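pasting for the record
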Amino acid sequence: MNKTIIITGSTDGIGKLAAIKLAKDGHHVYIHGRNQEKLGKVIAEIKSLSSNENIDGFIADFSNLEAVKTMSDDIKNKLSKIDILINNAGVFQSAILKNKEGLDLRFVVNYLAPYLLTQQLIPLLEAGTNPRIINLSSAAQASVSMDALTGRTEISNQASYAQSKLALTMWSFHLAKTQAAIEVIPVNPGSLLNTRMVREAYGKFWSSADKGANILYDLAVSEQHKGKNGEYFDNDQGNYSKAHSDAYNTTIINELLESTKEIINL
């Protein structure tokens, strides 16, 4: 059965590779990017590689939450359902450290943007067949500073990246409990994969980008992950594992969600 799949941050890296694999299976794949010209080129490339014409895309700069909201409106206007949402877009290093609201770019792109997009798309996911949300976490997870999240204090790139990834994981576990009809699986796709983001940040890599793309593909369509709602998959270990202890602390999660709602004004 062909699925309707959205993958954010998919004009490059593991998101693009996963999109190609899913397109080759005949699924309706919608990619996302922040550059219209590049988005168009990648859509054409995926169509050619997969012989699948059911490829399209959406545009938004995820450092701008208003743009994320506009993209969610575009999706709702175009689609009647979503079966799989892969929140893959992420950033580590950037020439610009904060967005126009003074929020750390890593928190915005890695956590706040997928939070906002997903909340807006819940009705479409509820209309999907065996809907699943896959959230890109990381082996790097660190306790979230609410002052850093809200832009009241500055922290290092590494710290904000690790905190944003834990924030995403904490919210994923909460979402899994509150959306019983939708499976939510946070995943560490693998450490130091051969992607542009990793090469720019560390100048080296440990594993092929295919390792990350393959687990995104499996999590999207494989029956072996059915019933894993609210569990964390660690692709470094190749199995379901435990995330950072804060991800299981209801008090800390509630504090995170309150701060998140204040920022986004939902």
